[in-house]
Write the structure tokens for this entry.
Amino acid sequence: MLIGRLGLEKARIPHADRHGLVWLDRGRLEVEDGCLRFVTAGGGELAAGDYQIPHQALSIILLGPGSSVTHDALRLLARHGCALAAIGEGAVRFYTAPPLMPDTSALAREQVRRWADPKRRMEVARAMYAIRFDEIVRTRDIEVLRGQEGARIKRSYQLAAERHGVPWKGRNYDRNNPNAGDMPNQAINHAASAMRAAAAVAVASVGAIPQLGFVHEDSGQSFLLDIADLYRHDVTLDIAFGAASEALKTGEPVERLTRQRAARLFRQRDVIPTMIDRIKLLVGPDAPRTETANEDED
């Protein structure tokens, strides 16, 4: 893309028409002759080379470990409304991102409308549980849903432990000391942190409001927790118990193994792109509205 010659330095492509995000690591993001470039010696996902980045067509750039960025690059990204997020390996940590300031507030406004109306908020919560349970959810009582979730997640822990051959004595989590548990409990904590980071990337990418959750309520990251939980029964536990199994066999640090496994599965299963799609399906301006008037309640 020859920006100066094609006049694209003044282009303003709507976010709805952009291609989403790119992952960059182990290199330098800089500007040369009006072009955004990423120079890397290799060692990460990219082969060594000098890459021109089409920032006008992107919503967000994810900058991984071993990377640096120049002031000129930040200025160019800000001018074109392309956000930059500092992430951990494979997006298992979400360190910082400047305000997105998307070119439309449609998704955020629709999220607020659905959150502010108790009936519509319950519709979204039920849709989230339907995704997690892979079945139609009929009850409109959030406490009943949470009770169903608790029973199912206990069974999911046991099944994941059996599948990966990991001894399981039950969930034991000390919020003040997350590393105090046994190997699988520590792995679950690290895997959950990685999944929250992935959810943070997805929420930031679409300009949704992190504080307005539909199942979670009190946390300043309630919506992030809602989205991360959509993957709790399958992906998060697969990451955790797979890493715990490997750690028990090799003696390697379980946190490192969990991060590596999370990064690999995030890419293999397109976790962040599917998160973005699900956010739009649940609270986007074109999201379907669930009709509940004629349904039977449990």
